[in-house]
Design a protein that fits this description.
Shape: globular
Number of helices: 7
Helix content: 25-40%
Bound molecules: fe (ii) ion
Radius of gyration: 17 Å
Strand content: 15-25%
Length: 275
């Protein structure tokens, strides 16, 4: 039987600054009508949970209101950014921030199997950090990859692995940086995930590289203006449906939800300050 995942991402939720809650609620209504096998939020669940735990609590409550099975992965706005990312406001991951995330959303990495597949969720901001949990996560990734058997691997994380090529050397906040990327590849031990699904860029895109299909989920909330961020794919809000078949084939698509506007962060200076 087909296993269907509804991936939402970059919901950027807050009670204090509820600019993007209406979009979430409307997309939630569409998800309840669609009834996927589970909903994945691939990070930036909260507006600014990295420095305000109230945002984590508000975001969790909104997800509980979906009344659907939900899994979470942390984004930079929930837990702080990677320690080697250029600073842009939300601070970097540390033990207190990670503990706060885990209190509200549970484990920040996880793995489980469905027919023909192993699903592996990874904390992208933890990769390559100096936290002791980084080594535990590396070991969990290695174990999940080594025990795949005949299954195919679907990897989920907040940030794209790279733009076009695993060998890219730029250090940015936009993709997993070179050192943590190499560490992730080493932990995978030569296994090429059939599907790599991420969020973070607020654009939908599907590309192929070295045996993997890379799918970027867009945000449910907002896009960034072209003057701040190049166009890699589609700048429209929505969610992504992934269909995993027991025979290892798979398909992903952007789902647009009627009545949900594509907001632009430039119109919300109260969210993160003027840009
Ligand atoms: Fe985001
Ligand atoms: Fe992000």
């Amino acid at each position: 039987m087909t296993f269907r995942i509804a991936q939402i991402s970059d919901t950027h939720l807050s009670d204090r600054k509820p600019f993007f809650v209406d979009n979430f609620v409307r997309i939630g209504e569409a998800l309840r009508a669609d009834r996927p096998d589970f909903v994945l939020n691939s990070g930036d669940i909260s507006l600014d949970g990295a420095s305000n735990e109230d945002d984590l609590a508000a975001a969790r409550a909104l997800h509980d209101g979906l009344d659907l099975p939900v899994r979470f992965l942390p984004g930079n706005h929930d837990i702080g950014d990677c320690q080697d990312a250029p600073a842009h406001g939300e601070g970097t991951i540390d033990a207190p921030r990670r503990d706060g995330y885990v209190r509200h959303f549970g484990a920040d990495w996880w793995s489980f199997d469905v027919a023909g597949w192993r699903l592996l969720g990874v904390n992208a901001q933890l990769l390559g950090s100096d936290l002791a949990a980084a080594q535990e996560q590396d070991a969990a990734i290695a174990e999940a990859a080594a025990g795949l058997g005949a299954r195919r691997l679907a990897l989920f994380l907040h940030k794209p692995m790279f733009d076009r090529d695993v060998g890219e050397t730029e250090i940015t906040g936009r993709f997993v940086n070179p050192a943590p990327r190499q560490r992730l590849m080493a932990s995978l031990g030569g296994v090429a995930p059939a599907l790599v699904a991420c969020g973070h860029v607020h654009q939908y895109r599907e590309t192929r590289s070295a045996g993997s299909c890379h799918v970027w989920a867009t945000s449910t909330a907002f896009v960034l203006p072209d003057r701040l961020q190049p166009r890699y794919g589609i700048k429209e809000v929505g969610y992504v449906e992934h269909r995993l078949e027991p025979d290892g084939t798979h398909d992903s698509r952007l789902v647009r939800v009627a009545g949900v506007p594509t907001l632009n962060i430039a119109d919300f200076p109260g969210a993160y300050g003027p840009i």
